[in-house]
Design goal:
By secondary structure, the chain is mainly β. Helices cover 3% and strands 43% of the residues. The chain is globular and about 50 Å long.
Amino acid sequence: MKLPYPPVILLLCGLFTLAPALADSSIHLDTPRGGWRTGAADNELFEQTVNYPASSVNTPAGQSDTARISGQIKGAPKASGEPGKLIVNGVAMPLKLDGEGRFDRPFSFTNGSNSVEVRSADGQQRKRVQFLNSGGGATPPKLRVLLSWDSDNTDLDLHLITPDGAHVWYGDRVAPNGAALDVDVTTGYGPEIFAMPAPLKGQYLVYVNYYGGGYRSTDDDDESQSDAVQPLTTAQVTLITEEGTPNEKTESFIVPMRAPGELTLVKRFSYP
């Protein structure tokens, strides 16, 4: 029996058929939305404003919807303390939720195809959207470093030394060379994101500092009545170069952080 179309045509059609995105009615994503978006947006800033200490819902007021990840996991147990999971373009990070399961995270997306997936703490609920970003107002970074970690009530900090000697960290988040660190997450999990639209040629150093543990309340919310919590925490550092291009390269490193005050050199690399 003859096929109505040649096998090669059928194969090509199969290659260009997109699988439907994961959907779960218990997870609501306000932003981003799937589909195609184009044009510059107000407040789609490369660097973010931070208020110290950062909160679990840490997107600055007035942030453009095209540069944020926000929504709610409706089935998340209230005050469970367990993070959800955020997966952006294949990079998995813990997602801190408030008592109602809400989340709101600034994020500078690359031009081209982007995928955002949110999962509940137990992995049973998940939702994914895919969208094509074209002509956004933010300059797409050619170099991005993401730090996340696996414990609540702990403060890890990302530090980058660029080839010209600039030190980018929470105390000096924007360098004259265009490198920037977004929010300083002090309450656990992260992520903290370093990005650079036009990376300098030369050697970069990536450090993680275990700034300190948080506090766990004993009888009430008075910090003086709380026990200090300084657990072993495991950091994940992900290095992404040429994101959203055919030359994209991603490397992830798992780093055990054992005690507050510890400073670890995670990676020494050259660009390009």
